[in-house]
Design goal:
- The protein is α/β, with parallel strands linked by helices.
- 38% of the residues lie in helices and 27% in strands.
- The protein has helices at residues 21-31, 58-75, 86-94, 112-124, 162-173, 210-218, 221-232, 238-247, 255-261, 270-279, 292-302, 330-343, 361-366, 377-382, 395-398, 403-406, and strands at residues 6-16, 35-44, 47-57, 78-84, 100-107, 128-134, 150-157, 181-186, 196-199, 283-291, 306-315, 318-324, 351-355, 369-373, 385-387.
- A hairpin with a 2-residue loop joins strand 2 (35-44) and strand 3 (47-57).
- Helix 6 (210-218) packs antiparallel against helix 7 and helix 7 (221-232) runs antiparallel to helix 8 (238-247).
- The longest helix is centred in the first third of the chain and has 18 residues, at 58-75.
- The chain is elongated, with a radius of gyration of 27 Å.
- 35% of the residues are buried.
């Protein structure tokens, strides 16, 4: 085939979706040995839009367009032809080498204003949007007052330096006060092959700090709570604060732990999230500055694969005010994340970490995807991704999972 004989044509179809439509149209192209260079299709409320970019020769192009025109009329769909020059096509191919990124918008609802703000940031940084897809289920006209979620995913393309990428991510994160959470990730092999997800426990998986619950039973609630809040804000060293708080629990009856464990307040979406993560093959771990006793209770209830936390010392049925073994602080959490990746024989980029406190930042920054969940201001300001609008099952959207896969009935 001589270069001068080549014709490149883009054909776009729009109309009501119907069985066999794609087959009927592509059979015409096959009849004339046309070569499909690109194809895309989307359905919105039973309406189809489809584009096909194909290569043919000058002696066949007229027949192809005539047959496609007749067939589209027969099927009741609109058709539009656009000739593409070889120069434009080659320039388009050259742009394929640009980096690809995924921007995920998550919230209770996503409005046109939210989308406009996010896409404006993308535009201002000189990137192009290749595609947009809805990850969440179809939205009812009248909300039922439940814990609704909405998520859409933008695939974008462009060349960014490290500084430009950080600036773009910062600008997207700055939109959070408007009522949405935004994840910005490089669309690479690692993003599509996450295998391990590690969670902080207190105020992340459960809606409490267990040490505060124990302190209330021991009658030292105010003292311990003040130390806890200071530590979570990063104002005092975690090891020091942990030692001081545990010492205040001296003499508490061991049976109190069982009562608290049986009444842990789970955070929204925990059960659904764990069900899906196990279904799709993730390994899950609790890496907590809290206590092993309660981590094991969550493990029995939800099936976590690993639990690493702190062990309280018990003697004669009462807490001694001491702990056993090495403290699981921020440094230790990051170390455990690294060790679990080695044990599971995966790259760190295939790991996910989720937490809310200052002592979670080391593992959030080490993991391939670090998510600050309903986090303290300092943590949120230093995290690459954050979730503040939905429950834990919102994490599934940041992993790229769709409701149609999570809940096939949607």
């Amino acid at each position: 085939m001589e270069l001068g004989d080549i014709e490149i044509i883009q054909v776009n179809f729009a109309g009501n979706d119907q069985p066999g439509l794609t087959t009927a149209l592509t059979e015409i192209l096959a009849q004339y040995d046309a070569f499909i260079l690109d194809i895309g299709q989307a359905n919105i409320h039973q309406s189809l839009t489809m584009g096909i970019l194909f290569r043919t020769t000058r002696d066949k192009s007229g027949f192809i367009m005539k047959d496609l025109l007749f067939k589209s009329s027969e099927l009741g769909v609109h058709i539009r032809f656009t000739p593409i020059s070889i120069e434009d096509y080659n320039a388009w191919v050259a742009r394929q080498g640009k980096n690809r990124y995924i921007v995920t918008l998550l919230g209770r609802t996503i409005t046109a204003k939210h989308i406009a703000m996010a896409t404006n940031v993308v535009y201002r940084h000189g990137l192009n949007i290749d595609s947009i897809q809805r990850l969440s289920g179809r939205i009812p006209l009248i909300e039922d007052g439940g814990n609704t979620k909405a998520a859409i995913e933008l695939s974008i393309r462009g060349m960014l330096t490290d500084d430009e990428r950080r600036a773009l991510q910062s600008d997207l994160m700055a939109l959070s006060p408007s009522g949405i959470d935004i994840s910005f990730q490089k669309d690479n092999l690692y993003r599509r092959s996450r295998r391990l997800i590690c969670f902080d426990m207190d105020s992340t998986l459960i809606h409490t700090e267990v040490i505060d619950e124990l302190a209330e039973r021991a009658g030292v609630g105010d003292e311990v709570r003040a130390i806890t809040e200071s530590a979570m804000r990063g104002e005092i060293d975690f090891t020091e604060s942990f030692t001081r708080r545990v010492a205040l629990l001296k003499g508490l009856d061991e049976s109190v732990m069982e009562d608290i464990a049986n009444n842990l307040p789970y955070n929204e979406g925990l059960e659904q999230m764990m069900k899906v993560l196990k279904r799709v093959g993730y390994k899950t771990a609790i890496l907590s500055g809290g206590f092993t006793y309660f981590g094991k209770a969550l493990q029995r209830r939800f099936g976590f694969d690993y639990v690493y936390a702190n062990e309280l010392e018990v003697s004669d049925g009462r807490l001694t005010g001491n702990y056993v073994g090495e403290i699981v602080d921020g440094r230790r959490k990051a170390e455990l994340l690294r060790l679990l990746c080695q044990f599971e024989n995966i790259d760190l980029e295939q790991s996910v970490a989720v937490g809310d406190g200052a002592n979670d930042l080391p593992m959030l920054n080490l993991a391939g995807l670090g998510i600050a969940y309903h986090a303290k201001p300092k943590v949120k300001a230093n995290a690459r991704q954050s979730i503040s609008t939905t429950g834990l099952d919102g994490i599934l959207y940041f992993l790229g999972l769709k409701d149609s896969k999570i809940n096939p009935a949607n």
